[in-house]
Amino acid sequence: MSENTTTTTTAPTENLRERALKLDAADPLAGRRALFALDDGVYLDGNSLGALPVHVPARVQDVLTRQWGELRIRSWDESGWWTAPERIGDRIAPLVGAAAGQIVVGDSTSVNVFKAVVAAVRIAGEGRDEILVDATTFPTDGYIASAAARLTGHRIVPVAPADVLAALGPRTAAVLLNHVDYRSGRLHDLPGLTAAVHAAGAVAVWDLCHSAGALPVGLDEHGVDLAVGCTYKYLNGGPGSPAYLYVAERHQAVFDSPLPGWNSHADPFGMTAGYAPADGSVRGRVGTPDIVSMLTLEAALDVWDGVSVDAVRAKSLALTDFFLECVEAYVPAGRVVSVAPAAHAERGSQVALRCAEAEPVMRRLIERGVVGDLRRPDVLRFGFTPLYVGFADAERAARILADVLAEVPAGNTVG
Questions:
Q1: Which residues participate in catalysis according to the annotation?
Q2: Whole-prediction pTM value?
Q3: Is the peptide bond before 377 cis (omega within 30 degrees of 0)?
Q4: Please, what is the Cα angle at 205 between 91 and 235, to 5 degrees?
């Protein structure tokens, strides 16, 4: 089943079910599931859109009816709307290993990638004209980096993460990488690659969309320069919730945003013609924040109170290990191939399975209540969100996958 070396062995169905129940009973995070609005299916797509925390609708109702409906313009001060981007950034900071004052929330991931890449090449200075970009990156990151290169007169160099070390040189200005690959779930070496980028005299920009809220990141510990991430996956901020931008404190005084909007002005209400940037992470702001979405995110972050990211990581690895074991036990040989890294140090919080019949298989899985997603042409992708996915979910999903594969005619088996 796996392209990688594994130590899994087949086991009777009843034994796997019993083990799942025992693992769930011993799980210190099991109680968090009650904090989310979930049905009796198995939701394994939290790496695309996190589940709704049950308390969020009431909080949003207060934003709409009292803060906006009654206080109206006064809420910019009295309800803290104006300071929300930095306040919520400080709540995200511990989840990605950052001290307060370095993260600002707002805009989309794409917009923040643009800000970060342009600012990175400006920090790197003259004499460097190359931007290295993960060749396997989520398409938008590549599109945005190319636009940033055109704007700044730089050249894009697509490179596989494994080849970054060889590609670095005196012409490298910035390197844009994904912490976790969105297709395979492979976790890249953020500490080692960041150190190598710095040794080459360049600036490291990391996309944390598939790692923040699923595993430790260590932005400050590992000396990351700039980072961006979305909040609607493992952080459960809701569809289209605002993204965030991390600017290391040592770079904030020289962070030169290509989008100098009035919200990042040192005196935003002075309405002066000339632009003077504010101090600190506020420089990452642009225009008026999307308050309703931002405060929805703030409410959603309550589910993280008292949660250790290390505990989340431990459960994530245990869940993905157990799911792969169940797939090995239940699924006929040759129907799926795991592309999830076997080594824990290289695995994010998702499992990707190559399957020749991926589209009809995922469609039938969803019909049966197992919600994953598809990456064309042949990848079944299952995200394991430790705050609300349990071991019984993993066993059930693998069992139903085997049932579906028994119904869907095999085309070209994969190997």
A1: 138, 207, 232-233, 381
A2: 0.94
A3: yes
A4: 30
